[in-house]
């Protein structure tokens, strides 16, 4: 598995994901001053959605609250 990951970019990781959670459109709020729900580019939006989830978990919010 490690051989498949070596050299993989963040964009590659997201684009190679077999399925994107359909509930990801429910992720709202700002990350780096940009509203996630207003991002037009699909790849950038996925990156910011993941950033938002990680940010909320890092703040100590429990997973059931993060996945509201």
The biggest sheet amounts to: 2 strands, antiparallel
Number of helices: 4
- For this structure, the quaternary state is single chain
Determine the structural class based on helices, strands and strand pairing.
Answer: mainly alpha
**Over all CA atoms, what is the radius of gyration?**
13 Å
Distance between the termini: 32 Å
The number of distinct β-strands equals: 2
| Overall pLDDT | 84
Shape estimate: globular
Strand order of the largest sheet: 1-2
**Which percent band covers the strand fraction?**
5-15%
Low-pLDDT runs of 5+ residues are: none
Secondary-structure element series: HHEEHH
Helix percent band: 40-55%
Could you explain how this protein is built, in words?
By secondary structure, this protein is mostly helical. Helices cover 46% and strands 6% of the residues. It is built from four helices and two strands. It has helices at 2-5, 10-15, 42-58, 63-66; strands at 30-31, 34-35. Strands 1-2 form a two-stranded antiparallel ribbon. A hairpin with a 2-residue loop joins strand 1 (30-31) and strand 2. The longest helix has 17 residues, at 42-58. The radius of gyration is 13 Å and the shape is globular. 7% of the residues are buried. The model has no long low-confidence stretch (mean pLDDT 84).
């Amino acid at each position: 598995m490690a051989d498949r990951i070596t050299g993989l970019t963040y964009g590659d990781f997201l684009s190679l994901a077999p399925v994107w959670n359909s509930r990801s459109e429910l992720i709202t709020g700002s990350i780096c001053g940009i509203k996630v729900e207003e991002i037009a580019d699909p790849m950038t939006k996925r990156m910011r959605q993941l950033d938002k989830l990680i940010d909320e978990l890092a703040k100590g919010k429990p997973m059931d609250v993060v996945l509201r």
